[in-house]
Specification:
This protein is of the alpha+beta class and 433 residues long. The protein has 13 helices and 22 strands.
Amino acid sequence: MSNTHYDVIIIGGRCAGASLALRLAGNNLNVLLLDRATFPTLPDVPSSPIFHPGTIGLVDELGIHESEYTHKGSKVERYMLNFVNYFEAEIPTSRMNLDRNYCYGIDRNHFDTVLWEHAAQAEGVTARDGFSVTQILKDESGTVRGIIGQSANHDAETFTADLVVGADGRFSFSARQFGAEAIEERNEFVTASYHAEWENVDDYAPGLPDAVAMYDTTKGFSLLVIPIAERKYIVCTYMRAEYAKFGARKIEDAYCEGLQRVPHLWNRLKNARRVTDVVGVKRIGNGYRQAYGQNWALVGDAVHFKDPLDGQGIYDALLGSKLLAQSILNWKQSGTDWQLAGADYEEKMMAATHPMFLQTVGRVKQQMHTEAPEFLLKTYLRWMMNDPDYQSQFMRYISRAIDPADFKTEPSISPGILFRGIARDLRQYFKAS
């Protein structure tokens, strides 16, 4: 067995892990970045791969230009919300009123590879993909000292470190090995999601290419369609967790049956071809784990995981790695005790992510587990979703341009939305008559 010492070992080389390595690079630290996958490859579980302006800004800070990780046809300038059999709302991303008034659908295979390659080339970073960590090393006091792992068809190797970071996702092996306890869970209302990539998909409508479309049946089942390249989309089924009990049916069969529930989408796929396997999570938990301990830390979905409804997972992973990097550098360069540095990271990470966490779990209850009366769907909810002021607030909420705590997720009767909605209906009535 070889034995090499590092300042930091990072287990997991996707959004959180590779971005952490990049932020630590060039600071006289030796960093070992490990991932069991061999890049390029897709993640094992689905995510909501939409980059809003806040996420793009965090990637900018890593020195990676958006042209490196996006494809032609992935730029999003409108969201289409289709409440099946009731109404649709078109929301232009210009409603965000930001310097960047667009989003991107992200090809995770491509983005993760670009991020990994940047980290692998960074000063002070040793990157090894295709390497599986099999054990976390601890001393008699329970302090983490390193890892044991191996590449395919090779002998086990041991690496020691001053700090070991788990960035290996919501089902984190590292968290279990560290003994990280759950510190908050909100799983009263949970969902399931399955997705695959499709190519040669038709546009939402003539003149509406590259739109993110969400089809909401209003019965606890939705479909999300995200452009990641020209005529190439990720197509997701999203449902209450109890609807994901497929029994003897194959996941692929259940997934295709779900797509057929919305004829508009199924028609868009008539000439399309599914180009990846269907992957999914049958019960998407929401919560936090301990963020740090005796010479260990967690980042990304390993520490904080939640429903993909608001598309905030990648943003939170990149933000979390930024905050953890600051604490690690304070510890290594300023002599701050690791326990104090770790506590500072946990406090700042919670403050930065918890308001959105609460909003997201509230919106899951409202959108996926509460069926609105038909008269409300046909009137006030339709007026609200088509109201320019509401659309602006919603898009600024999604893009983290406002404090998530300031956004009202529960629909309440607003006189302004009410009067503007009635006025629009009257204008359309007289125009048609």
